[in-house]
Write a structure and sequence with these properties.
252 residues; alpha/beta; Rossmann fold; 10 strands; binds 2-amino-2-deoxy-6-O-phosphono-alpha-D-glucopyranose
């Protein structure tokens, strides 16, 4: 079931996403969060930091597992996803460092790292809420358009369009890693609930294609149409433009 929440602004969409996580943290003893990077979830993380500082929620018993990490970047590289998570969430809430997990971008043996990360995900005993963004090409995590949906953790070659999109964070395009480890689509689909964040006009067409188009590994996010639980899409008006034009009845 897909619930699309309308928000005029990215701030409001971020609050909607933070509400889903707040409800989980308030009701579950040892919650497991699947976390995402990218610009879309930043506002939601800021909101969660504020709620933690206000004492509304605590991350003391939260365990996290991130979707992905670039190959070749150390955890303290300022463009690594480990660095991103520490800057945008972990360093500002009462989470225990040992309860946070990301793939190791510097792993010498990629095969062993894939197996290790599968084990990390399995050891969580189930992800309660998985946060997702959506790439310009419909990727989730770093699961790029492909001829099949991935199951477990994979080492992927990033597409040119993803490298282009992510080059805005690097000094030069050549500095963008060309590979990444990502949680597999099968693992994402096993979560209990999904919060998808999509902000800005650049996501309008791909969001509509993913949620209303054909389910195909060419648009990895389209698999969410088959998700067993609830996918809550928190998007701003700009990202919802195509859906509002073609399927106005679908928006809550
Ligand atoms: C990256 C991440 C994705 C993210 C996507 C969109 O490639 N690996 O998990 O969803 O970018 O990012 P943004 O929210 O900045 O558009």
């Amino acid at each position: 079931m897909i619930t699309i929440l309308y928000s005029k602004t990215a701030e409001e969409a971020s609050i909607n996403g933070a509400d889903v996580i707040t409800a989980l943290l308030m009701t579950k003893k040892n919650p497991v969060l699947g976390l995402a990077t990218g610009s879309s979830p930043v506002g939601m993380y800021t909101e969660l930091i504020n709620r933690c500082k206000d004492g509304q929620i605590s991350f003391k018993n939260v365990r996290t597992v991130n979707l992905d990490e670039y190959v070749g970047l150390s955890a303290d590289h300022d463009q690594s996803y480990s660095y991103f998570m520490h800057e945008n969430l972990f360093n500002h809430v009462d989470i225990k460092e040992e309860n946070t997990h990301l793939p190791n971008g510097l792993a010498a043996d990629p095969e062993a790292e894939r197996a290790r990360y599968d084990e990390v995900i399995a050891s969580m005993g189930g992800i309660d809420v998985q946060v997702l963004g959506i790439g310009n090409n419909g990727h989730i995590g770093f699961n790029e358009p492909a001829d099949h949906f991935s199951t477990g953790t994979v080492l992927v070659d990033l597409t040119d369009s993803t490298i282009d999109a992510n080059s805005r964070f690097f000094e030069r395009r050549e500095d963008v890693p060309t590979q990444a480890f990502t949680m597999g689509i099968g693992q994402i689909m096993q979560a209990d609930k999904i919060v998808m964040l999509a902000m800005g006009a650049g996501k309008a067409d791909i969001l509509e294609a993913a949620l209303f188009g054909k389910v195909t590994p060419e648009v990895p996010a389209s698999i969410l149409q088959l998700f067993k639980g609830e996918v809550i899409v928190c998007a701003d008006e700009a990202a919802l433009a195509t859906i509002m034009a073609k399927h106005p009845e679908a928006i809550a």
